[in-house]
Amino acid sequence: MEILAFGVQADERPLIEKAFAGRFAVRCLEVFLNADTAPIAAGHEAVSTSVNADLGADVLRTLAAGGTRMIAQRSTGFNNIDLAVAAELGLTVARVESYSPYSVAEFAWALAGAVNRRIVRAAGRTRDFDFRLDGLMGRDFHGRTAGVLGTGRIGAAFARIAHGFGMRLLGWDLAENPDCTALGMTYTDKERLFAEADLISLHVPLLSATHHIVDAAALAVMKDDALLVNTSRGGLIDTEALVGELRRGRFGGVGLDVYEAEAGLFFLDKSLEAVEDDTLARLMTFPNVLVSSHQAYYTEDAVSQIVETTARNVSDWAAGRRSVNVLVPAAP
Prior knowledge:
One of its GO terms (molecular function) is NAD binding. It comes from Streptomyces qinzhouensis. Residues 8-326 form the D-isomer specific 2-hydroxyacid dehydrogenase catalytic domain. Residues 111-296 form the D-isomer specific 2-hydroxyacid dehydrogenase NAD-binding domain. It is a single chain. By secondary structure, the chain is α/β, with parallel strands linked by helices. It folds into two domains: 2-99 and 299-328, Rossmann fold (3-Layer(aba) Sandwich); 101-291, NAD(P)-binding Rossmann-like Domain (Rossmann fold). It is 35% helix and 15% strand. It has helices spanning 13-20, 57-65, 83-89, 101-116, 119-127, 153-165, 178-181, 190-196, 216-221, 239-247, 278-285, 300-318, and strands spanning 2-5, 25-28, 46-49, 70-73, 92-94, 145-149, 168-172, 186-187, 199-202, 227-230, 253-256, 289-291, 326-328. The chain has a seven-stranded parallel β-sheet with strand order 8-7-6-9-10-11-12, with helices on both faces. Strands 2-1-3-4-5-13 form a six-stranded mixed β-sheet. Helix 1 runs parallel beside helix 12 (300-318) and helix 4 (101-116) packs across helix 6. The radius of gyration is 21 Å and the shape is globular.
């Protein structure tokens, strides 16, 4: 059986080929799975998809009609998959439940440090041999308050780094993480966290309950010089509301590795095309905003774990085994 892998990055390909070696043949494609590319999968019982794949109802029906029976997504999030339709079609859908939390947590801190200390602006200046310090003043993290929304494995890793900086910790989640309380984290409601935190980092999944968890009301109560970092999912932030606050000159810095409408943009070269997304174009103009292209997870350690788990998910499916990574069919 040959596995068809969509949306494979150049750095990712050798890791995928290594993970599937001795298990199944694998064919790697750079194109992402969507309505236009789904027919390519015809004749492949199993496909592997990336985080920005379109796995809505129409795409799933095209896959099923072409003989696909199993979808192995190379990510933890699955908000892009219509699980109800997948179940209706008898498709098996699996994801990667977990991988190195340090990859994302460390990148969140890279964004926080970059916007706090104006690294991008400073690097641009020095390339032009402009060595002035005007406009580059940041603030110590030590002694300030870090607010962590979502204290699972990634949020806890972020909190441990914050603790190392000597920061006060506020957390919000449905359940308290003992590892975080051991660091001295105080769990509180979202409103207090938004109002008191000097640095807010998002580490919750995108669900109906968390969509726009950072909305206009949340942004309004944040400190004018707060730092906001999102390495989870773009839909957690109301981007239009964020742009409105940035236009008013608010926030010490915003680091976004994800964006609400990133599908069809991120992971692709759009440098020679006109920018049609006015909101994203506006975000790029603010000097205190840094946008990266959903790369927080992109370390050799994390990607190796992701593709190894993906290959194992396909093997389990082929052998009739079930694991915690299976989303559809639902657990009995």
